[in-house]
Structures are given as structure tokens and as C-alpha cells.
Design goal:
Two copies of one chain form a homodimer. By secondary structure, chain A is mainly beta. Chain A contains two helices and twelve strands, in the order E-E-E-E-E-E-E-H-E-E-E-H-E-E. In chain A, the strands form two sheets. In chain A, strands 4, 5, 6, 7, 8, 9, 10, 11 and 12 form a nine-stranded mixed sheet that branches. In chain A, a hairpin with an 8-residue loop joins strand 1 and strand 2. Chains A and B meet through helix 1, strand 8, strand 11 and strand 12 of A and helix 1, strand 8, strand 11 and strand 12 of B.
Chain lengths: ~200, ~200
């Protein structure tokens, strides 16, 4: 943030009155600009004991696998956003079943909000396919997840817990934060709620 | 967003290549500026069958009551932010007990992420008090909540469900979205998870 989005003036870091941290403040019109974490919404799409993975056709992490997920848009709910991303990235229609995870990834200020969803089969035509941001989309059993080729730490964490949940036969909803420590990702503040 | 925060050039609404909606795009350096929903993190702080309310000393909704909550900051987790807000607004130290709600308020693109927390009593001195953003802070029984003087619809929705949960003796975690329809707030996509 170098310039004010309101008036185009130069900004500089200042601690506004009554606050305890630096913000980008406009030197011309004094507007205070706040930066806040962004939400990433997505789905673990289930079908016949398998889940849907997409091979990324865009950076970051081109060629790596992930679940359908992306930045939440203005005016939509997290569930609507998760369903939208499933359609955009995997041409899949889904029915959200339950919340699955809320992981705050603190070092990049992103909150992953993930849901379990069921694939809704169309009356005719393919049930899913690669959207413009995917090279390939496929259904895999939990045992077939390509752990070394996953794009994002938060998705890997969610799929590890998902694999545990499937093995135990009890789905949970996982809350927590993912921190980078000594080059590794560590899940903290982990709370697992039973899903009725 | 009138000017580019990168170079100070004028922006104009354009649909970037490969996207389906207008963004503010810089006419000078072509940077695409994205707007995303913001997260509001807060606590229902419990103590001796009561919960903590703060009377707002700032706009919006000066003089109305709410729970300690505010915008999540970069680099913190939602739980850390909820505890920080409890300290800033009510000078209270808390221990987060469980997630309580995630409500997307779609018409203002805000996500309320609320936790139940217990008040941690200090070795000496007052357990809580009005921070700079509060006129007054007090503990109330659910039956004493001033329903007509609450500041925000999402907090009112959370406290209504909380009051139900207390009456039934079973806490839940509530997920859903709050939409404005015909001047009223309606909770949709409501999923209630049992809390262990």
C-alpha cells in the first residue's frame, strides 16, 4: 500500500490515535487503510467413497493438487463461495453437507473455511471436469491422495484429518490455526467437534 | 477504490481476462484490486451463569450493547483475535472454550467468528472494566440481555441461539449466513453442531 485508494496521495506508516499498531495513513486526506486476513472457501467433495482433487493450471503451485477452493467474494456466504469454487474449478454441482474445517494460516493471514459436500449428478452429461483453472480433475480414495504433490499446507492438514475421520467412521469439524515453525507447519488451538 | 494503491494511477471497473466480474483495475499499471469479506472475531465471555456485554463508546452504534468483538488483524488467529478484543474492549483476560458461531453477514460482507470463553480472574485487581472503546462493561444473565439495545444483528442472532442453548443445557456451534430480506434479518443455511 503505497498510495491512497481514495485520493491517490502518498501513504506512510503511522500509528493512528487510539490504536496500537501502524497502518498505512494517507499524507494528503488522512484516510487510514486497514489490511485484514482473507477467507479461502472450499469443499471436500465426496462421491462413492472418493474425494475430488484438482490439478492446478495457475500459479501459485501450478501442477500441484488441491481441493476446489478460492477467495471468498463480496456478498456471498462461505457456503455459497465454496459451492461456486467447486463449479468454477471442477465444473461440479455440489450439496454442502457439513462444515469441515476453519484453519487460520497466520503467517499468510488466510482463513481456510472448508465444507464437506456431496457431488450432485446431472441428469445428463459429465458430472465434473477441469475448469479453466484446473489441468485435470479426478476422484480418488483417501488412500490414493498424492501427499507429496499437494499444493497447500492447509489443504494437506485438512485431508490428513479427513483421512483419520474416514478411517474412524466419525466425521468431525476441525477448528485451529496453522503456524510455520522451523520450516514446518504446526496445527495449534485444535478443537474437533463431532458432526451429528 | 478510486486510485491504485501500488502506483497512484486512476482505477476503473473492468472484467479482467478469465474472470466473470468487475474489479477495480489500474489504468496505469494494470494491477487488479480485489475486495474480499472481512472477519469479525469475538467472545461470549461466561462467568457464574452470566455473560459480558459492552456499551459502545464509538460509532457505529454508539451507546448500544454488544459482546467484545472486532476486525481480525493480520498475522493472528481468530481465537487470538477474539481474546485480544476481549482485552481491548473489556480489559478481560479470557480462556477460549469452544467455537460458538460463524455467521456470514452477506449484505455487508462480514463474517462473524465467535467463541465461548471463560473469564480468567486476575490474582488481584478488577476482573474487567471499560476499555477505551466501551462506555460500560457488565455481566448479565441471559434473561437480562437488553434485546432492544443490541448494536448488531449478528450478535443478536448469536445471543438468541445462546439463550436457547443455555435453556436446553446443550451448547452448540452454529454455522450459517444472515441475509437482509424486507428489512428483516434472516438466518439461512443454519447448521448446529453439538459441542462435546
Amino acid at each position: 500500500m503505497n498510495f491512497c485508494s481514495q485520493c491517490g496521495g502518498k501513504t506512510e506508516p503511522r500509528i493512528p490515535k487510539g490504536e496500537d499498531r501502524e497502518r498505512a495513513v494517507c499524507t494528503q486526506c488522512s484516510t487510514v487503510h486497514y489490511l485484514n486476513p482473507k477467507m479461502i472457501v472450499g469443499c471436500i467433495i465426496e462421491h462413492d467413497g472418493q474425494i475430488m482433487l484438482c490439478k492446478r493450471a495457475i500459479e501459485p503451485r501450478y501442477g500441484f493438487w488441491t481441493i476446489p477452493a478460492g477467495f471468498m467474494e463480496m456478498g456471498e456466504s462461505a457456503m455459497q463461495g465454496a459451492a461456486r469454487e467447486s463449479h468454477e474449478e471442477a465444473s461440479a454441482h455440489v450439496r454442502i453437507v457439513a462444515p469441515y474445517a476453519h484453519f487460520d494460516v497466520t503467517h499468510i493471514s488466510q482463513a481456510y473455511i472448508l465444507y464437506r459436500a456431496h457431488l450432485v449428478l446431472p441428469k445428463e452429461g459429465p458430472a465434473f471436469g477441469a475448469g479453466s483453472e484446473s489441468l485435470e480433475v479426478k476422484l480418488v480414495r483417501p488412500s490414493e491422495i498424492p501427499w507429496g504433490e499437494l499444493a497447500f499446507g492447509a489443504v494437506k492438514q485438512a485431508l490428513e484429518l479427513y483421512t483419520e475421520d474416514v478411517a474412524s467412521g466419525r466425521y468431525r469439524c476441525h477448528i485451529g490455526s496453522i503456524h510455520r515453525e522451523d520450516g514446518r507447519f504446526v496445527l495449534k488451538e485444535h478443537i474437533a467437534l463431532p458432526v451429528g
